[in-house]
Write a structure and sequence with these properties.
Oligomer: single chain
Helix content: 40-55%
Strand order of the largest sheet: 1-2
Structural class: mainly alpha
Shape: globular
Largest sheet: 2 strands, antiparallel
Distance between the termini: 25 Å
Number of strands: 4
Length: about 200
Amino acid sequence: HEPLLYLGNRSLKRILDIFIALLSIFFVLIWLPFIIKIVQVLFYPGPLFFIQDRVGRDGKIFKLFKFRTMYHSDDISAKKGESQKTSIEDMRIPWFGRILRSSNLDEYPQFINVLFGSMSTVGPRPHMVGEDKVLEKYVSRYRMRRFVKPGVTGWAAINGFRGGTDDLDLMTKRTEYDIWYLENWSIWLDIKIIF
């Protein structure tokens, strides 16, 4: 059972996405990038955004936008979503990058992805390409989470299943939450998750 197979439901979800994305861009993304860029220039120079390939709906690759939280690197594999996951004490992350990550402010540019339609406000979190390839081999029904657009937040994320992990049991549990979301979607569920 997948409620988002129906055009009316997909249209409702898209209207909510556009509304939330415009609010986020208008009230946050018109001033936050300037503050972040000033700190980046002072403490870890490089581009404002980190843009990485992620796996989206139907397994299609898209460019995910985040504020850069790590020291700048020209590593092509990182941009292609094939890099190593970060750890808690990762030396590649400066102090301000840690603040952005712990507050989730680094995720705000994903509302640009939402506005342009590669992501939704709510859905399964998109994984790096390399991580996705591994998980589809070892986690049962993992590919079902690709039936909808990935989200800035999601049912699994608000229930404590977020962030990188190598624990397949945790990824299995996260996938179960993602599938529950797909099968039980409603506009009210999205609003509850957003709040």
